[in-house]
Amino acid sequence: MLIAHRIALDPNNVQATYLARAAGVARFAYNWALAEWQRQYAAHQLEPTVPPPSQLSLRRQLNAIKRVQFPWMLEVTKCAPQMAIIQLGEAFNNFFARRARYPTFRRKGEHDRFSISNDQFRVEARRIRIPNLGWVRMRETLRFTGRLVAATISRQAGRWYASITVDTPDVSLPPAENQGAVGVDLGVSTLATLSTGETWTGPKALRTLLNRLRRLSLGLSRKVKGSNNRARAKAKLAKLYARIGNLRRDALHQLTTSLTRRFHTIGIENLNVKGMLGNRRLARAIADMGFYELRRQLEYKAAWRGGQVVVADRWYPSSKTCSACGHVLETLALGQRRWSCPGCAKTHDRDVNAAMNLRNLAASSTATACGGEGSGPVPPHRMKPAPTKQESNGEAALSNNG
Ligand SMILES: [Zn+2]
Predict the structure, then answer these.
(1) Is 269 designated active site?
(2) Residue 105 CB neighbour total at 10 angstroms
(3) How many other β-carbons are positioned within 10 Å of the β-carbon of residue 348?
(4) CA of 321 to the centre of ligand 1 (A)
(5) How far does Cα 308 stand from its chain's mean position?
(6) Sequence-ordered list of residues with C-beta below 8 angstroms from that of 218, at least 6 positions apart, any chain
(7) Are 127 and 375 in contact (CB under 8 A)?
(8) 112, 185, 299, 395: which is the annotated catalytic residue?
């Protein structure tokens, strides 16, 4: 099973400079290959004897010219440009399969990252060895054992992280204590509400930070666009987001361990990924941030115990449906915590009711259960073996595992 563990890095100044440079090379190679792809595709449309572009041909072409045209690329690991072009190929595969939009150019400062194939890095206790750079300190040890698959080094809010994907041998833990089902409604001020009525509030520090986030984002909207003050506030906000994300991740680990230990079947909501691209309410953004992590953790931990995770259809109205009689409300205001069902007159707590619907759905439908498409923590379409031509090498590439 493929599992990724994201670990904060502690690079010194020289190392941080290298990481930024490698991310820059990856971005350049990605953008170069995307522009070439478009040009070569247009040429192929006009003249069918001209071969269409592919990630493999583009990697060869870049290798042939980089020594002369882009010699600065040689200062960083050769994986940076190679893996970036493999990821572009994946982005096109996802586009052709209608899983994603047409690939766009990467922008500086927006999710800066580069990937390293498994034969090019090593992990030892609390450090990772990166080609042409040496050992970089990690904040924690790698949580999983098994064959290393790939590493993605990325920057978020000024801090560097290594997301290391490991192919772990099949773990098998005792089955869940309770063979029944549970529904989980993910929230913001309360981390999660279960269909049993339990609420998980998360650590106090998390709530403190959420309050600070509310104040800060309010302050940001009052600052003049393009001003230094606004830029500073934005950077502060990004740091706060990162800290909240880390705290939530830790809190979710406690929640998901408890859930998979106790219940065989776990029902959760789905999210409309395309809808996330637009502007969303702050609260929703925070909940979304935790959603992918919740699903990822639940899926691998449930698999360890032979349990299953059932993800609701993305349009399933878990909040607006009465869990007692099935009546569906037309609307339910975001702030409304309690409501009475016009069908059966039962009074519901919004979150508990949503969790109960997710539990009922999970218990009744195993058709969409994890195990089919999208099973496991890393979707299979995001993994692709890297052909061992020329200077490429690795086993697999990860497009982006956040
Ligand atoms: Zn009802």
Answers:
(1) yes
(2) 10
(3) 21
(4) 8
(5) 20
(6) none
(7) no
(8) 185
| Model pTM score | 0.66
How many residues belong to the chain? 402
Q: If you measure from the C-alpha of residue 356 to the centroid of ligand 1, how many angstroms do you get, rounded to a whole number?
A: 13
Q: Where are the beta strands (DSSP E) in 257-322?
A: 263-268, 308-311
Task: From the candidates 112, 269, 293, 395, give the one annotated as an active-site residue.
Answer: 269
Rounded CA-CA distance 387/305 in Å is 35
CA of 180 to the centre of ligand 1 (A): 23
Catalytic residue among 112, 293, 299, 351: 351
* Residue keyed to tokens 């929230």: 187
Residues bordering ligand 1, an ion, CB closer than 5 Å:
322, 324-325, 327, 341, 343-344
Token pair for 226: 């393009």
101-150 pLDDT per residue, tens: 899 999 998 889 999 999 999 999 899 999 989 999 999 999 888 899 99
Question: 207-213 long-range CB contacts below 8 Å, 24 or more apart?
Answer: 209/240, 209/243, 209/244, 209/247, 210/244, 210/286, 212/240, 213/237, 213/240, 213/241, 213/244, 213/282, 213/286
Amino acid at 247: L
